[in-house]
Amino acid sequence: MRLTLVHPCIGRRPGEPYIKAWQMEPLPPATLAGLTPPDWEVRFHDDRMEAIPFDEPTDLVAISVETYTARRAYQIASEYRRRGVPVVMGGFHATLVPEEVSRYCEALVIGEVEGVWATVLADAAAGRLQRVYRGEGRPGLAGLRPDRSIFAGKQYLPIGLVEAGRGCHFKCEFCAVTSYFGATQTRRPVEDVLREVREVTEAGRKLLFFVDDNITSNMDEAKELFRALKHEKIRWVSQASINAAHDEEYLTLLGESGCQGVLIGFETLNEANLRQMRKRFNTMRGGYAKALENLRRHGVRLYATFVVGYDEDTEASVDQALRFALDHKFYIAAFNHLTPFPGTALYDRLKDEGRLRYDAWWLDPAYRYNEVPFWPAKMTPEQVRASCVEARARFYRWRSIARRSVDRVNAGNAMMWSAFWTINAMLRAEVDQRDGYPLGDLGYTGEIIEASHSEPFSMTTRPRGALEAWAA
Ligand code: B12
Ligand code: SF4
User: Fold this and answer.
1) For ligand 1, what atom is nearest to the CA of residue 336?
2) How many other CB atoms are there within 10 angstroms of residue 392's CB atom?
3) Could you tell me the pTM of the whole model?
4) Closest ligand 1 atom to Cα of 68
5) Ligand 1 center to residue 66 CA distance, Å?
6) Distance CA 397, CA 387 (A)
7) C-alpha distances in angstroms, 439 versus 231, 240, 291, 371, 446?
8) N or C: which end of the chain has fewer CB within 10 A?
9) Chain-centre distance of CA 182, in angstroms?
10) pLDDT by residue (tens digit) across 252-288?
11) Nearest atom in ligand 1 to 166's CA
12) Is the shortest distance between the CB of 341 and ligand 1 below 6 Å?
């Protein structure tokens, strides 16, 4: 049997290259390939960087669907369906909006795939694919071995992606991760992570990215991993919540284990916004000032992210966030508009308040990337969009880049100093490149063909996420 894995892009304007910063090795298809028995022949096409050979013979197509890639995923599925090939879909959007996604695939996997992939493949081989497969609960991650051989010959950014854990125990209102994983986190055994770290570094990756949603979600487990990493002599980056910055042992272990920087979601400087986000842990124990002082003392470089469009935001508060980012000389920073992802508490609240500008912004042909799809409370959608672009443009001015480049923490070692210039220059070039980006391939002229199903989709198959758990 032949399996074709496809990683869709968000969209494309004919003739234009895809956004460089997003072209990293995608772990979802590598994870599926690693779980696929050897009697299946596996091929992989990354829609972000190559044309998909739709006529290449195959027996089953598997597509990861995120909210931003849904329109493109449905175009790709239609092409295979037209050729009589069944399509299975999974991933974040597939799990959070299963009724919609199920219309565009022969089989849908809800939740994590580890416990059900063998059954999906066996059913496909026997010609009896079911409409819905449900990954029950949180599968253990021991023994997981992503198969990176599928990336051979593709020109990805030179950074190795490794998963140490999945999910996060916090319940931020806007976060799809908390809905998907029901505010829980699971970890891979440290030995599995170390084995993969060695494989990826031996394959030539000098910098590793632990893609964990929040590597500090469980501090004891995080410290256990960092202690083990001390002996590996690697350089790594990851994502963490700021509450961890008050733990001296953690901060020391970060340095000793080779951490080069962490992404921290600051989101906003406004306490009322943080309360509404359910993210007040951000300013606990002395707030940002104390946390930043600790991180600086330990030489931790920061990728600071800010979100614009919460109810207390005004143009002045965006300006304040920008000045904060410049004053603290962050290695890099992101200023993005708030996005109501379906399946999140934020989406449901804005819907209840009648503030969504589209029924389903991710499917609307008129919607473009970076357009604010809801009505903010104190700004117009256009003011939110424009203030994000303006903040990015000012953060990535050459003068700001030069000033931040000589900061003691940012210039801490030659590799990260050189990477500083490359990354800042790349983000400078992309300040407004994503603005107006289409969802789906604008050059697609085919018809969107829905899958034909004999049974209706049942809501009872939807997993119980964080939101339902609170309600219960
Ligand atoms: C690493 C990462 C990135 C990296 C690398 C992406 C890449 N090339 O792979 C970078 C930084 C480039 C990135 C960019 C973006 N990202 Co991102 N990213 C992640 C992160 C943290 C980890 C992804 C990962 O590798 N996970 C490990 C894999 C193994 O897990 P998984 O994807 O959940 O897959 C499992 C299941 O979902 C399922 N599954 C997945 N696909 C499929 C397919 C089939 C057929 C089946 C059966 C099952 C299945 O099986 C897997 C194993 O159980 C996730 C959060 C997360 N926990 O996943 C966000 C996440 C996917 N990103 C997100 C977003 C919004 C973005 C951006 C739009 C951000 C932005 N504004 O710039 C861009 C879009 C990029 C693009 N699509 O082109 C959102 C998506 C939300 C949503 N509702 O769709 C997430 C969930 C983060 C969040 N907090 O909300 N991202
Ligand atoms: S801390 Fe980060 S990953 Fe965790 S729920 Fe909040 S936004 Fe999501």
Assistant:
1) 71
2) 21
3) 0.96
4) 84
5) 7
6) 15
7) 44, 29, 38, 11, 15
8) C
9) 17
10) 999 999 999 999 999 999 999 999 999 999 999 889 9
11) 57
12) yes
What confidence tens digit (pLDDT) does each residue in 46-99 have?
999 999 999 999 999 999 999 999 999 999 999 999 999 999 999 999 999 999
Rounded to 5 degrees, what angle do the CA atoms 391, 392, 397 make? 100
CATH topology of domain 158-429: pyruvate-formate lyase- activating enzyme (3.80.30)
Domains 2-140 and 158-429 share a fold: no
Find the range with the poorest average confidence among 131-140, 165-174, 227-236: 131-140
Task: State how far the Cα of 34 lies from the Cα of 144, in Å rounded to an integer.
Answer: 7
User: How large a percentage of the chain has pLDDT more than 70?
Assistant: 97
User: Which residue carries 């990861």 as its tokens?
Assistant: 64
397-442 pLDDT, tens digit each: 999 999 999 999 999 999 999 999 999 999 999 999 889 999 999 9
Looking at residues 433-454, what average pLDDT do you find?
Answer: 94
Q: How far apart are CA 36 and CA 40, in angstroms?
A: 7
Write the residue with the smallest CA distance to atom 56 of ligand 1. 213
Pick the CATH number of 2-140 from 3.90.230.10, 3.20.20.140, 3.40.50.360, 3.40.50.280: 3.40.50.280
The atom number, within ligand 2, closest to the CA of 241 reads 1
Ligand nearest the Cα atom of residue 278:
2
Give the 3-state DSSP-derived string for 112-169, with helices as H, strands as E and coil as C: CCCCCHHHHHHHHHCCCCCCEEECCCCCCCCCCCCCHHHHCCCCCCCCEEECCEEECC
In angstroms, the CA 122 to CA 442 distance is 36
Domain extent listing, the chain: 2-140, 158-429
Structure tokens at 75: 């175009």
Residue 15 has pLDDT above 90, yes or no: no
How far is ligand 2, taken at its centre, from the CA of residue 213, in Å? 7
Question: 196 in ligand 1 pocket by Cβ < 6 Å?
Answer: no
Element (H, E) at 287: helix 287-297
The confidence score (pLDDT) of residue 459 equals 56
Integer Cα distance of 129 and 122 in angstroms = 9
* pLDDT computed for residue 454 by the predictor: 85
